Amino acid sequence: MDHVPSRADSSASANTVGSGSPSPHNEDEHAGDAVGTGDKEAQPAPDIMREDAMDEDPPPELVTTPMNLSGALAKQAQQGEARGFGPPGIMAESSGAELRAPGVQPVQSMFNNPPNLARIRRVLFECKDPIEISLEEFETYWPFIDNVWVKQRTNASKEGHCTTDYYMCRLRRPTHRTSETRPLPEGKRPRKKRVREGGLCNFQIKVVRFEGAYSTVTISRTPGSGSIHSHDLDYIDRVKRNSGLMEFARRESAMGYLPSSIYTKFQEEPEKLDEAGGRFLTVTDVRNVSAKWRIQNPDVTLVPHDGYELVKGHGIVKSHSANGPSEVVQPHPVLATSSPHLAPDTLSFPNFSLDFLQAYLPNHSQRRELPHVTLSYASSMDSKISLRPGMQTVLSGPEAKLMTHYLRSRHDAILIGVGTVLADNPGLNCRLEGAGGFGGLGRMWQPRPVVIDPMGRWPIHPDCRMLRTAVEGKGKAPWVVVSPGAQINPQRLMMLKGYGGDFLRIVEYNQNWRLRWEAVLRALASEGIKSVMIEGGATVLSELLNPEYTNFIDSIIVTVAPTYLGRGGVSVSPDSKLDQEGKPNAALNPRDVTWTPLGQNVIMCGNIRPQAERPQSHS
Ligand SMILES: NC(=O)c1ccc[n+]([C@@H]2O[C@H](COP(=O)([O-])OP(=O)(O)OC[C@H]3O[C@@H](n4cnc5c(N)ncnc54)[C@H](O)[C@@H]3O)[C@@H](O)[C@H]2O)c1
Ligand SMILES: Nc1nc(=O)c(N)c(NC[C@H](O)[C@H](O)[C@H](O)COP(=O)(O)O)[nH]1
């Protein structure tokens, strides 16, 4: 421990440790970060989205890239808004390849909707929090929402790696009004065009494309933007069709089908049409697409689809075969593959209210020096969190478990001590449906696992759940907080970095030679982390409940289980406290306390940091 500074001379310093790992992200974005054995002042906090983009180095076979958690989106999902989730490999399957009803031939679908389209359209419409997705995901989903956005300008970086496009909501712009009336063909009446005044919605976003070894796209509101649209998504879908949807119409047109036949076939798959934003599609929209194609192909005779015919006065109707109408193929939207399977460990999103948590959750729009810290754990009636040291003990019922995963979705990082890693081999990801890897985009809702392991005790290995989870695209790889004395061999370092994780070296200690929590939190803040949920274990929690640290803790959410684990159990308890006269006093009294029953558990929520210390919102 020769290069450990004393308390007086030290300032919180966190460095990535190692010997020049080949991580392209670190080379590109964190140029200047201490990648090496020397210690260095923590870098100023980077843009949180870029930070995630840059340090997550998935192995080459991965196609997903991290996406920042959107707490408000979790809330949206909680409210039960349109949710249809896809398989874990989000780009792996399309939901619209074919339809199959019992006893009938498979039918080719008119749609090729990517998984979870309805939900993802909504995410890209609301842009409540910054979202980071892979370029592939962007190119797949953006055409289905481009009806909402009008590009204002583009900035490109000098090196050309990074392009920023600024968009405004379509309703901000007035519709074009020509001063002169156009000459019209003989006998044709001028078309009635509704003119929109503009300025109706002040929602603006920027889309930052970073093209490098792992290309990412970050979508976020611009500073001058309103916080919500002044209208819903249906309103825009009514005003303008998106190009993803119209591409389906163009594809059918290019096969020489009649617009009315295409329109009829679209209407036979109302769920997919709706999902793609086509609720207000008209036959005229299809005719316009078809007309464009016919300019280049004037000699083609348009035909109805197989099994359909054009009947004068009736339009497109299904044709009856020799054996009668029973043989006519009836697509069955309920049996369509539009409800694809999810990873088997997916947890359903809570269908009960979690409003009682809101007052205790981080507000990411607050500008603060250190992250919001939430302590969250499950305890027995006798304040034990496990039956024996190193023994995982289930205390949360199913509802409380969902709540814990919801809490994970609302924090940028989850922190635990190495004792818990060794005991539980935890995944530390969010497994709620809608999270990245569980039907959501990229690493949406996935927090960054952080392990406090000053001496490097964790024998980190590809079979650890945290690394497996990262490889499977179901969570982020961990950051391991170590002290200067930790022996980290280069292979271990390279392996962790290869998974997208890292080591953070902290060189500040308190008088008991424990790492100073302020330094840990400052290091996380400098890496763009705005909120941390600390889950345990007993050593970590008990220490943080001491007066020395209560200024750093915002809230506490304890799941209380109706059981006594007994004296051999592992307790969470701060040090005893004496008052000014030397009489025993309560060690800590959380404020603004609520108790909410949840299944077999009761959830205690409270604030810890003294009122005057709570940071002001700058939103
Ligand atoms: N019920 C729950 O909610 C819950 C949650 C988490 C863990 N657990 C249980 O808790 C038990 C593990 O608790 P624990 O106390 O053994 O482990 P822990 O997870 O608290 O880790 C303790 C270790 O972290 C490191 N550490 C923590 N703070 C440090 C600091 N300031 N400076 C330097 N090093 C520091 C040290 O190496 C220490 O030995 C397990 O049985 C686990 O199942 C229960
Ligand atoms: N909320 C809660 N209720 C419990 O009953 C219990 N045993 C834990 N324990 C927390 C501990 O940190 C575990 O290690 C992780 O909860 C495991 O995390 P994963 O599920 O593997 O992601 N937490």
From TrEMBL:
Biased composition (Polar residues): 8-24
Major enzyme class: oxidoreductase
Top-rank lineage group of the source organism: Eukaryota
MF-aspect GO terms: 5-amino-6-(5-phosphoribosylamino)uracil reductase activity
EC number: 1.1.1.302
InterPro entries, alphabetized: DHFR-like_dom_sf (IPR024072), RibDG_C (IPR002734), Riboflavin_Biosynth_HTPR (IPR050765)
Composition bias, Basic and acidic residues: 25-52
Domain Bacterial bifunctional deaminase-reductase C-terminal: residue ranges: 371-602
Chemical reaction(s) catalysed: 2,5-diamino-6-(1-D-ribitylamino)pyrimidin-4(3H)-one 5'-phosphate + NADP(+) = 2,5-diamino-6-(1-D-ribosylamino)pyrimidin-4(3H)-one 5'-phosphate + NADPH + H(+); 2,5-diamino-6-(1-D-ribitylamino)pyrimidin-4(3H)-one 5'-phosphate + NAD(+) = 2,5-diamino-6-(1-D-ribosylamino)pyrimidin-4(3H)-one 5'-phosphate + NADH + H(+)
GO biological process, one term: riboflavin biosynthetic process
Keyword terms: Riboflavin biosynthesis
Region (Disordered) residue spans: 1-94
Role summary: Catalyzes an early step in riboflavin biosynthesis, the NADPH-dependent reduction of the ribose side chain of 2,5-diamino-6-ribosylamino-4(3H)-pyrimidinone 5'-phosphate, yielding 2,5-diamino-6-ribitylamino-4(3H)-pyrimidinone 5'-phosphate.
Recorded family membership: Belongs to the HTP reductase family.
Protein name, UniProt field: 2,5-diamino-6-ribosylamino-4(3H)-pyrimidinone 5'-phosphate reductase
Organism: Penicillium canariense
Lineage summary: Eukaryota, Fungi, Dikarya, Ascomycota, Pezizomycotina
